[in-house]
Amino acid sequence: MALSTLAIVILSACGTTSPTSVASPATSTTPTPPVFGLDYGPYTVGDGPGDMVPDSRVEQLLTVLKGKVRWIKVPGASAGNTNVPRIAHGMGFKVVATAYITGDPKVEEAELKQLKIDIDNKWIDVAVLGSESIWVKAKTAPDLEAELDHLRTYIHGRLPLTTVEPNVVWIQHPDLVQHVDLVMANITPFSYQKPFNEALSYVNTSYAELVNKTHKEVWIGETEWATQGGLFGQALANPETAANYFTAIEKWSRGNKVKMFYFEAFDEPWLGKLEPPFGDHWGVFTKDGSLKEGMDRGFSPP
Predict the structure, then answer these.
(1) From 65, 90, 147, 159, which residue has the greatest number of CB atoms within 10 Å?
(2) Strand stretches in 100-243, DSSP E
(3) Strand extents, DSSP E, the chain
(4) CATH classification of the domain holding 133
(5) Residues contacting 234, CB < 8 A, separation 6+
(6) Is residue 16 in a domain?
(7) CA–CA gap between residue 187 and residue 181 (Å, rounded)
(8) Has residue 27 been placed in a domain?
């Protein structure tokens, strides 16, 4: 397994040699990781949602991201995701954790219970209730708004609360904005079959529309480009195009100070069965933690 980390630069300040002087204490600075955020899913070894994941695997793969990424976004609170916020927080990452709202009361109860544990232990920095719940028709907008308001009373201002929906849903349901502290939108040109030469423009226009219409801080929860799979409409999934998109969108987000999560950190094989032929090729890194060809350019400082 090829695990890589950015070197930590140590700067030492020395005092004078005069007998009457006091030596200045050594100081150290750690470079700010270049990428704001990646979506991190733990199912990289033939498992999938509902399966537990050993802490050692989480620690091993998060070590790959150490020094490269400031935030991770966890797509679920229970099962294999249960220990990710605790481990990531302990490693110095900022963490967004999501409680899935699926329409299944048992799943929702487990997700919400664990999200509250994460909140109470200060393992997360932003709480998310629901991931595309309206988009997939797991919840109506009024029902989701009511659940957000209920969770807000529990959080009591301890950290920001939001939900994640595609950019089009936020525009279609303007009342939803009043029930969140920030807007987190998935803006995914590949999923809309945009050609590469239109992708960046689509993200820029969609983001600007959300900022102008919601009047709240807007974060991008997901944007992505598959590294294999061929044509999807006019979107071409191959290593070169994916690396070019990752590089371009990271440069755009830094230049415009947009808080953005790229989907996703590592390939997850189970997604290949759910979303063929692209599902197991979303990662910036392989499932084993190797950086894919060309993706290094996206981590280059501006």
Answers:
(1) 65
(2) 126-131, 161-166, 183-186, 218-222, 230-232, 235-237
(3) 35-39, 69-74, 94-99, 126-131, 161-166, 183-186, 218-222, 230-232, 235-237, 261-262
(4) 3.20.20.80
(5) 193, 194, 195
(6) no
(7) 19
(8) no
* DSSP per-residue letters across 114-136: HHHHHHHTT--SEEEEEESTTTT
Q: Two tokens at 296?
A: 């290094």
Whether residue 18 is contained in a domain is answered as no
Strands 183-186 and 218-222, by their bridges, are: parallel
- Please report which helix (H) or strand (E) contains residue 168, including its range: helix 167-172
What is the residue type of 116? K
Domain count across the chain: 1
Q: For 279, list phi and psi in degrees, rounded to 5.
A: -55, -35
Q: Is residue 28 part of a domain?
A: no
**pLDDT, tens digit only, all 302 positions of the chain:** 332 322 222 222 233 333 333 444 444 567 899 999 999 999 999 899 989 999 999 999 999 999 999 999 999 999 999 999 999 999 999 999 999 998 899 999 999 999 999 999 999 999 999 999 999 999 999 999 999 999 999 999 999 999 999 999 999 999 999 999 999 999 999 999 999 999 999 999 999 999 999 999 999 999 999 999 999 999 999 999 999 999 999 999 999 999 999 999 999 999 999 999 999 999 999 999 999 999 999 999 76
